[in-house]
Design a protein that fits this description.
CATH topology: Nuclear Transport Factor 2, Chain: A
CATH architecture: Roll
Distance between the termini: 35 Å
Number of helices: 3
Radius of gyration: 14 Å
Shape: globular
Largest sheet: 4 strands, antiparallel
Number of domains: 1
Length: about 120
């Protein structure tokens, strides 16, 4: 992926910025404020995630807690496929900590049974 494609995807991600509005003040299960703040920006995490999906386009992004770790989670549309790659980037280290291919059927079941 060339630099121009990365920046186009990052620009598209910035337009989706409303998806993560308020994420930094998300509450834990007990209702308390999440004291942990991301040290890796959403834009930098997006660049890291897009390196894993050449030609990909971010369709959803959010800051979330997975298995006790704060991560940036990106759903990335893959060129020439209906599948989506979900890439999770650690919000502190910038490391890719999870990568999963999701089919349209898998996406539909996630929509029907959202995480709590």
């Amino acid at each position: 992926m060339d630099r121009r494609q990365v920046w186009r995807s990052v620009a598209a991600l910035m337009l989706l910025g409303g998806l993560t509005a308020g994420a930094a003040s998300a509450t834990d299960k007990d209702g308390s404020m999440e004291g942990d703040k991301a040290t890796v920006t959403q834009e930098r995490a997006a660049e890291i995630a897009l390196e894993r999906v050449p030609g990909g386009r971010i369709v959803e992004a959010e800051l979330e807690r997975e298995h006790g770790h704060l991560v940036w989670s990106f759903d990335i549309a893959r060129p020439g496929s209906k599948d989506v790659s979900e890439i999770q980037v650690d919000a502190h280290s910038g490391e890719v900590v999870a990568e999963e291919n999701e089919t349209p059927d898998h996406e539909a079941s996630e929509d029907a049974n959202p995480k709590k």
